[in-house]
Design goal:
Length: 97
């Protein structure tokens, strides 16, 4: 049974989601794979919020029940100073769980 993300759980999920990628043994950063959520996360961490938002919206057109995509889009919209849409995405995330 999944527990809803509330309070500390949401904070921990956000911290885990936005933690820097683990370096490869050679010390080189891991390039984004074919995973669109990883690519969107990498763009968001790099401050490329508009690109991340576009990738997430494209992903959600085909995977509308992805709680992770809604959560990350909520974060990106919050960083873009769009609280209304950000809250709508966090709400969609909670509904998807």
């Amino acid at each position: 049974m999944r527990m809803p993300l509330t309070g500390i759980g949401c904070g921990l999920a956000l911290a885990a989601l936005l933690a820097p990628p683990v370096a490869q043994p050679q010390g080189k950063p891991t390039p984004p794979s074919g995973d669109p959520l990883l690519q969107a996360r990498t763009l968001a961490v790099a401050g490329k919020l508009t690109q991340s938002e576009k990738l997430l919206r494209d992903f959600l057109r085909t995977q509308s029940s992805s709680a992770d995509a809604h959560f990350l889009l909520g974060y990106v919209l919050f960083r873009e100073k769009n609280p209304r849409d950000s809250l709508a995405e966090f709400t969609a995330c909670a509904r998807s769980r």
